[in-house]
Amino acid sequence: MPNFLTLYRETYPSGVLTIKTGNIRTNSLAEIYRNSPVFQNLRNPDKYKGKCGVCEFRYVCGGSRSRAYAMTGDYMESEPFCVYVPKALRKQKKNIKKGYE
């Protein structure tokens, strides 16, 4: 997992995902990485929301958390530019369709 460190020793997940995770003046980088709620969420794909949360590839892909944050204000939301439709959502769509036939 990348880390971005500012001149003021503040840490962020990346230069694009600008959610402060800590400051190395008060905690070590390892402590911040292990204990920051932001990093804990980013390491747990089961907490992803929307289609990323049900996608069978969430452990491999994970989508762009930075792009999700930029587009929705929530880094745990679905990757906005992903065109893939997870199997779970395709099954839901089929079941809904059957209910109307």
UniProtKB/TrEMBL annotation:
What domain of life is recorded for the organism?
Answer: Bacteria
Q: Which residues form the 4Fe4S-binding SPASM domain?
A: 19-55
Which Pfam families did the record assign?
SPASM (PF13186)
**InterPro entries with a match to the protein in the record:** 4Fe4S-binding_SPASM_dom (IPR023885), Aldolase_TIM (IPR013785), Radical_SAM_PqqE_MftC-like (IPR050377), rSAM_sf (IPR058240)
Q: What is this protein called?
A: 4Fe4S-binding SPASM domain-containing protein
Species of provenance? Bacillus thuringiensis subsp. darmstadiensis
